[in-house]
Amino acid sequence: MRRLAASGAWLCAVAVALSAYAAHAIEGTQQARLQAAALFAFGHGLALIVLAPRASSRALRIGISALLLGVLLFSGSLVVEALLGIRPRLAPFGGTLLIAGWLLLGAAMLKKEK
User: What is the pLDDT of residue 112?
Assistant: First the structure.
């Protein structure tokens, strides 16, 4: 779980760099896409930092892993589109993984209360 938490910190660092690049180096639609990618990376990076050390069950670990993979696919796809002009074909899969990861985390946390 330390690796997932560390991945969250790295996501936050990359998000800050992306946001700075978007604010100072590009404009228009590309800027908006990089800002969106940075927002998702930062938010989910923080979630990984907080949730990973507390992942005591298999379901929690799977949910957190889905968040990491989902944000990499979603944000990464937006970055590739903004910088290289390649359509974000993986963004829907990343978004689906993010939704599934959050739903699994919620279910696992409710089950843990019982």
Answer: 61
